[in-house]
């Protein structure tokens, strides 16, 4: 009993060190985001490009015969897609950190590798929230809006979406040494998911290889959970939601945990081999 009492301060001290590490890394990335006009402009420009150009043309061609409002369908898809794209783009800066020795300094510090990765994901997700707000503004200009309650629901789910996107990106980033290759890898992670997860094109009736691929993509489940919340209690629910929300949530958590473990392992190994 006395040993447990003596260990409690050590456990609390360890937990505080881990939390401080997460906060420090996240704060560093958020500060860098504000100090980089290019990153801010890109976070706001991407929603304009995706919604204004791609989404606008699709809305004209696909709105008829779907049985639901395609504009709202597309807006929700773009919100989740922007969270994924911005978070994975932020995570790719870990490769650039190789050349500043920032990650090497973190690796020799007495903190968990998971704290380092989670701190990086939290910091990267800040730009994702800016993109999300930009997407809502572009949607408003296009005449596509969501009720405040639904916007708040999406914001409440966004940390889980960003964590899932960041965990997936870590697997690839842990294997890459080149900054150019990291940027390419981000595109390879996000672009196929945008088209195959149902972000802008309904996949309810997909079959064969496309059916299998879509079910392997984390964005499919993140998107479906958000749509389940947004469309809850509406006649369109069965037309746009693929899975039971409880099953979807379990799938997201499972995929995120697995990707986080694998990605952290690759990241730690790449730093040891540096």
Number of strand elements: 0
Q: Report how far apart the termini are.
A: 44 Å
Low-confidence stretches: none
Assembly context of the chains: single chain
Shape: globular
- The amount of helix comes to over 70%
Q: What's the mean pLDDT score?
A: 82
Q: How much strand content do the residues show? A: under 5%
Features:
274 residues, 0% strand, 12 helices, mainly alpha
Give a brief description.
The protein is an all-alpha fold. Helices cover 81% and strands 0% of the residues.
Plain-language structure description:
The protein has 274 residues and is mostly helical. The chain has one domain. The chain contains twelve helices and no strands. It has helices spanning 2-35, 37-62, 70-91, 93-100, 102-107, 113-141, 148-173, 179-196, 208-216, 218-230, 237-240, 245-272. The chain is globular.
Please specify the SSE layout and strand pairing.
Elements: H1 2-35, H2 37-62, H3 70-91, H4 93-100, H5 102-107, H6 113-141, H7 148-173, H8 179-196, H9 208-216, H10 218-230, H11 237-240, H12 245-272
Helix pairs in contact: 1-6, 2-3, 2-6, 3-6, 3-7, 3-8, 3-10, 6-7, 7-8, 7-10, 7-12, 10-12
């Amino acid at each position: 009993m006395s040993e447990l009492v003596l260990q409690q301060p050590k456990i609390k001290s360890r937990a505080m060190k881990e939390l401080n590490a997460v906060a420090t890394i996240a704060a560093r990335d958020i500060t860098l985001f504000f100090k980089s006009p290019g990153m801010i402009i890109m976070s706001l420009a991407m929603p304009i490009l995706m919604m204004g150009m791609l989404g606008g043309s699709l809305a004209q061609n696909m709105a008829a015969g779907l049985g639901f409002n395609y504009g709202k369908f597309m807006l929700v898809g773009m919100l989740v897609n922007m969270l994924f794209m911005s978070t994975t783009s932020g995570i790719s800066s870990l490769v650039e950190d190789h050349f500043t020795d920032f990650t090497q300094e973190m690796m020799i510090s007495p903190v968990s590798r998971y704290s380092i990765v989670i701190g990086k994901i939290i910091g990267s997700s800040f730009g994702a929230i800016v993109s999300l707000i930009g997407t809502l503004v572009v949607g408003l200009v296009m005449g596509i809006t969501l009720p405040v309650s639904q916007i708040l629901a999406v914001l409440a789910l966004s940390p889980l979406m960003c964590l899932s996107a960041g965990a997936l990106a870590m697997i690839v980033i842990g294997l890459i040494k080149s900054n150019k290759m990291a940027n390419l890898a981000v595109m390879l992670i996000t672009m196929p998911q945008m088209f195959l997860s149902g972000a802008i094109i309904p996949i309810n009736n997909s079959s064969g290889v496309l059916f299998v691929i879509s079910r392997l993509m984390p964005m499919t489940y993140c998107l479906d959970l958000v749509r389940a919340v947004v469309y809850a209690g509406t006649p369109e629910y069965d037309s746009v939601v693929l899975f039971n929300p409880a099953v979807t949530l379990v799938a997201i958590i499972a995929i995120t945990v697995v990707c986080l473990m694998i990605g952290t392992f690759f990241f730690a190994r790449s730093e040891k081999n540096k």
